[in-house]
Amino acid sequence: MMVYVFLLSSTVTLFFTSLQLYLEYKDGVASIHREIDQISGTSIKALEENLWLLNITSIKLMLEGIMHNRDIVYLEITDEKGNLVASRGKVPKEDGQTYTIPLTYKYRGRDIYLGRLKIIATMDNVYARLKDTITYILIAQSVKTFLVSTFIVFIVWLLISRHLSTIQHYANNMRLDRPQKDLELDRKKSKWIRNDEFSNLVDALNMMRREIYTSYSRIEYLSLHDPLTNLPNRRFLEERLSQEMVRCHQENRYGALLFLDLDHFKLLNDSLGHSTGDRMLIEISRRLSLISNKEMLVARVGGDEFIILLGALSDISDVASEKAHAVAHEIQSCISRESIIADGKKYKITVSIGITLFGKTPLDTETILKQADLALHESKAQGRNRVSIFLPEMQQRADQRLQTEQKLHAALQNEEFVVHYQPKFDRAGNICSAEALMRWQPAPGKMVPPNLFIPIAEESGLIVEIGNQVASMVFRMTAGHWKTVKHSGLRSIAINVSPRQFIDPLFYEHIISEVSRYGLDPNFFILEITEEAVIKNIGATIDTMHRLKKHGFRLSIDDFGTGYSSLQYLKDFPLDELKIDKSFIDHIVDNRNDRAIALSIIEMAKNLDLDVVAEGVENREQFDLLINLNCHFFQGFFFSKGVPEDEFIALLTNGDTGSFLDQKPSGKRKG
């Protein structure tokens, strides 16, 4: 800063010094002009008279007198013809100021030109005076400039700079992750500085720091906690899990991670509304917090997913596993022991839990979370409300699932999916309909069982594209063999629609477009959906049903009785058919409960004016009993398994069904 002040002061000093020198120069030049004017006023008259009289001696004396002026270095008088009359001094090597004065004499009333006086004045004296002045000014002004600059710098430092440095240092070292003392300046407090600019700046900076710290603390908290339940979130969990894994590895002990998922919570959330679902989640979080302790971290990592982190449990894996299972069962009891009241109604919530241990074997947090997630999926696969611990074979199954999913992508591109048709029969044993069954044939003669790929296709969402492709294949087959189909007396072909496919926004447009493309009557096709598809999104399901029904398609509920059957919903559905699930048919001959359920479904279908189909009929006894129960239609291996398209067309062409009634039970029905 000293440099800048000095430069500024020097610049100002230089400006005024230059101005002063210029004025003195102008004054020196003016002084020479005054001397010339004085000569003109005092000596010219006498010179003119002596020149008229040609008194050369007097002229020279007068020139000697004029030469006493310090700035005049040369005088010269010439006559009217330019001849030199007299001169004094020397002509300077460098040009000086030259003045010429004409000399005249008045004789008998007229001016007679006698010659001229030439005066050369030098600027040396002017320059010498300027030089002396410059030397003086430079010395005096430099000293003054230095002293003034030093004084200004000191005053600025005392009153401004040191405080700005303090503020800068405070700002550079400001920490938002912990509280900090307010900024104070090294100044004596007085009324003169109470409301000055620095005081206001310091107050504003302190206020800003406090507000920023408060906001930062809030943001930091929100970045580590779930805003709904105030539980730690995934980021917080992963940081703690990483620390806990290091600690357990150093202490040679086992910790545990419990992955929780509320059973069928999405159904409750969609049915009751998200606000009610949020209140339920808050209550679940409260219950989990009640059983937590300093060695346990409860985190919410998803919509209805929670993770419990247990610290070092034991140095023996079996003991650590037992303790983790004990906590898991305590969690299940805590959540399901008392119903949750929402909108004046009680709801019983259950939870599926997956457990994995960590500690002695170094792994990363992502792997641990993945293992717990796989264990959770195992609990769901076992029927939910279960506790499973991670086993290596779960990872193998997950890898196989990923491979299958990748192969399904390729199968879609290569059109490896085929359709088999399983006939449906009426009470007289005649083929009246058929169900189109999806099959995966990656190579000739090789078939992948449906139970190995359909669940994976459903979870991955590929079932939507696969299902649409299969529907198009059924329409193409029907159009290609329409004469045979019509001549055989076949009343309909049923197409299975997966839950995800049915609620897909593009499903309706696709199926309408395809049936129109092949010029087919939509009433010839029955779209079979499961109870799960109906319940997942009742509002959208009913809307899609009515749109399809309005277009002419017939609708059927597949596997009826195995899901969340509700007569309240059933009466609102524009159905044409119910299919009794195979699980009720398997033991219908020996089990009175299965028989009663089947009879109830048949009677209900009759009262609702719906057709009813018994699935999985595998022997004569089942068929005869269902006949007595007044069942309308039948499907199963007792009659026929699912057959490829060419065999099905051949079956329709031959029209011979008598042999099917004489078949013996032969394995399981369709997958």
Report the radius of gyration as a whole number of Å.
Answer: 55 Å
The chain-level structural class is: alpha/beta
Q: What is the average of the pLDDT values? A: 86
Separation of termini?
88 Å
Beta-strand percentage range: 15-25%
* Main sheet summary: 8 strands, mixed, barrel
State the helical fraction: 40-55%
Shape: elongated
Please tally the β strands and state the result.
21
Question: What is the tally of helical segments?
Answer: 24
Q: Low-confidence stretches at least 5 residues in length (pLDDT < 50)? A: 663-671
Record the strand order, biggest sheet: 12-13-15-16-17-18-19-20
Quick tags:
disordered C terminus; 671 residues; 8-stranded mixed barrel; 21 strands; 5-stranded mixed sheet; 54% helix; alpha/beta
Can you walk me through this structure?
There is one protein chain. The chain is an alpha/beta fold. The strands form four sheets. Strands 12-13-15-16-17-18-19-20 form an eight-stranded mixed beta barrel, surrounded by four helices. A hairpin with a 2-residue loop joins strand 3 (97-107) and strand 4 (110-121). Helix 12 packs across helix 13. It starts with a helix and ends in a 10-residue tail after the last helix. The model is unreliable at 663-671 (pLDDT under 50).
